[in-house]
Amino acid sequence: MSALHRTALELAAAGLPALPLRAGKVPFGNCRSCADNSCGGRPNMKTPGPCTCPNPCHGWAAGTTDPHILSSGPWQRAWVSASAVAYHPGGAGLTVVDLDNDDAIAWAREHLPATKTVPTTRGEHWLYSGTMPSTNGVRSGVDVKSAMAYARWLGPGIGTMTVLPDAVRALAVSKPAAPAFSPVPVPAPAGGGECCHRTPAFLERGIAMAEQRITEASGGVHSAVYRTFLAVLSTHGRCGCLTEDHITRLFTAAQTKGETVRHCTDAWTNAHTRLGL
Predict the structure, then answer these.
(1) Integer Cα distance of 171 and 108 in angstroms
(2) Between vectors from CA 179 to CA 178 and to CA 184, what angle results, nearest 5°?
């Protein structure tokens, strides 16, 4: 039994739904049976746990306290290649305020009640008792991880845990609006840029499917956003039919999943470069 597997069993015994992370601190991707959420989309469920397949699929929703699942064949294989253990805070009745740098820590010490603290690579996790919606980027260097999210397990921490205060709940409500972005222009082809597709409905259906693909991404959101942008541009990027409204819809879907404007812009630019647009 690997050290990570042993840690996961200890977390499960303590009531924390555990799951393996691969390199890059990201969950294991969906298996073939669950690709593109063909199994029904476990992250759309309100409670964590594996779907009907035996694999550690669906990101945070794979978290489980069942030692038999954690030790099953597919999970055993996952532990062999895993690089870390994560847990679903909301499934354990917890909220993690992820402070990513010294400035964020200084802000928290000034504005949030003291609570149990876990050192991280670049900052600290502040753990509170209680659940709330998870929201990334509530302010610079600060994410809130609770329901439908995962946090890396870095140890039990120090201090006494405090009940989730209104000051933390308010962060999700008062999250600052994403800064305005300038979509990368889509060049029209020579010849006036007339759309080569037969009906506007083809483009609308493509954008709607792209929004859905981003919204339903269960893990590796960066990669899912890039692949979706690439697919849209490969179909519509050369005929001049994409408008600023279409691009805004795609960026909004990505930001709703926690992507920053910078990540969206980088993914859009990289997709342009990949296609030679």
Answers:
(1) 12
(2) 110
Task: Classify 54 as helix, strand or coil.
Answer: coil
- For residue 242, count CB atoms less than 10 angstroms from its CB and return exposed for 0-12, middle for 13-18, buried for 19 or more: buried
CB 265 within 8 A of CB 181: yes
Report the C-alpha gap between 120 and 98 in whole angstroms: 9
- pLDDT of 80 over the 80 cut: yes
Residue type, 38: S
The string of DSSP codes covering 157-194 is -BS--EEPPHHHHHHHHSPPPPPP--PPP-PPPTTT--
Distance CA 93, CA 240 (A): 49
* pTM more than 0.70: no
Query: Nearest-5° angle of CA 67, CA 3, CA 153?
Result: 75
Other residues' Cβ atoms within 10 Å of the Cβ of residue 172: 15
**Polymer length in residues for the chain:** 277
pLDDT in tens, 30-58: 787 776 666 765 545 555 666 678 889 88
N-term to C-term CA, the chain: 50
pLDDT at 192 > cutoff 60? no
Task: Tell me the C-alpha distance between 262 and 267, whole Å.
Answer: 9
